């Protein structure tokens, strides 16, 4: 008979912080995190050096998951770079229409964490740069005459959908952004 091992304190902290920081923001209190994870305060400091380290780790983990999602969307859309890029907006439409969508966790963290030296800011910058590189690769494969500008415009549309999707749920922001993306790509 096999028994399933319960996650340790580190994983419980990450899981609780990933959930709570998304629903309540990156400024969620330490006591709430500890209670949700059912761990002692000592575990937070042993594994992450404090709440700042935990929030940065949560963003790193989320960024890896989200980057994998972009790659999966590209793969599912086939080999045509235009279709791969437009598929991102179809995926965004599905994401922002879920009942528990609360906006872009990276933008929320950047806005909530006033200290410019907070380690979360480095994570969000790196994440955005990796997404930019994914987009840029596809734009260049498409043979766009101004790939840098087109990539910037696509990233602006993506981040706009994620931002406005939280403040105006129910509207078809991703569909509108997809139409604009077509204009960017069809130059």
Automatic annotation (TrEMBL):
Is Transcription regulation set as a keyword in this record?
Answer: yes
Q: Which domain of life is it from?
A: Bacteria
Q: Which GO terms describe its molecular function?
A: DNA binding
In terms of InterPro entries, this protein maps to: Homeodomain-like_sf, HTH_TetR, Tet_transcr_reg_TetR-rel_C_sf
Which residues form the DNA-binding region? 29-48
The record ties this protein, via Pfam families, to: TetR_N
Key words, A-Z: DNA-binding, Transcription, Transcription regulation
Q: Where do the HTH tetR-type domain residues begin and end? A: 7-66
| Cytoplasm as UniProt keyword | no
What is this protein's name?
AcrR family transcriptional regulator
Q: Origin organism of this chain?
A: Saccharothrix ecbatanensis
Record lineage: Bacteria, Bacillati, Actinomycetota, Actinomycetes, Pseudonocardiales
């Amino acid at each position: 008979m096999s028994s399933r091992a319960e996650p340790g304190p580190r994983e419980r902290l990450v899981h609780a912080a990933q959930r709570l920081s998304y629903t309540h923001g990156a400024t969620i209190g330490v006591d709430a995190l500890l209670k949700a994870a059912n761990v002692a305060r000592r575990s937070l400091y042993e594994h992450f050096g404090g709440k700042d380290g935990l929030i940065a780790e949560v963003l790193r983990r989320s960024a890896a998951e989200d980057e994998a999602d972009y790659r999966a969307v590209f793969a599912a859309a086939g080999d045509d770079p235009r279709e791969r890029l437009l598929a991102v907006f179809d995926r965004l439409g599905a994401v922002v229409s879920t009942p528990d969508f609360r906006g872009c966790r990276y933008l929320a963290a950047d806005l909530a964490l006033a200290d410019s030296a907070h380690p979360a800011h480095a994570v969000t910058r790196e994440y955005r740069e990796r997404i930019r590189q994914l987009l840029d690769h596809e734009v260049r494969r498409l043979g766009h005459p101004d790939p840098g500008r087109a990539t910037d415009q696509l990233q602006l549309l993506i981040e706009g959908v994620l931002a406005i999707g939280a403040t105006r749920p129910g509207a078809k922001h991703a569909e509108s952004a997809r139409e604009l993306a077509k204009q960017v790509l069809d130059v």
